[in-house]
Every structure is written in structure tokens, then in C-alpha cells.
Amino acid sequence: INVPLDREIRVFVMGRVNQPGPVTARMSEGITLLRAIAGAGGVAEGGKQTAVQISRRLRSGQEVKFKVNLKNILKGKTMDLRLEEGDVVFVPESFW
Question: Which helix (DSSP H) or strand (DSSP E) does residue 10 occupy?
């Protein structure tokens, strides 16, 4: 019998969050955008929730970036996004 290890995955949360840095979870549980930001202490004052950026490196080595409206996820208008190992979440600063 071969039992696969439930390894840990890590994503990085940066920008206007209260505790920037790596956030870990078990692969079997997975990690979503909301959970990652909560693990980083939440969005700090001045964080722009409507333009959260996620950077992901594909197996080909290419990096893709996409923007997510966190407010719409919190309101239930869009589904929470499942993150992958090594994703970088950036919460930008709102200038007004």
C-alpha cells in the first residue's frame, strides 16, 4: 500500500496586508484567495480590494498575471479563487 504524503503548499501575500509573507496549507485542503489574505492578517487600511493581482508561473516557465476583485468575492458575486503552489498575491494601495 502506497499512501501519498499530504505535503504543504505555500503562496506569498504581499502589498497592503497586515502581515505580508508566505501562507501555507495542506495540499488536501487547498488554499483560496480569501484564505491566503486572511492568513496574512487581512487587507490593511488603504488596500485596494478591487484590483488584487495574482502572479502564477506556469510549467512552461511563463508567468501569467491576472486581477481579481476581492470585494465581489466577499459579496458572493464571484467565486473564491483556488490558488496554486508558488502563487504570489499582491494587494495594491488605493490612492483615494
Answer: strand 8-15
Q: Rounded CA gap, 37 and 18, in Å?
A: 9
Cα–Cα dist 76/73, whole Å: 5
Return phi, psi of residue 83, to 5°.
-90, 160
- pTM, two decimal places: 0.89
| pLDDT, the chain, mean | 93
Q: Are strands 88-91 and 52-57 parallel, antiparallel or unpaired?
A: antiparallel
Tell me, rounded to whole angstroms, the distance of Cα 7 from its chain centroid: 18
The list of the chain residues with pLDDT below 50 reads: none
- Whether 69 and 52 have beta carbons less than 8 Å apart is answered as yes
Burial of 44 (0-12, 13-18, 19+ CB in 10 A): middle
H or E, element range at 34: helix 33-39
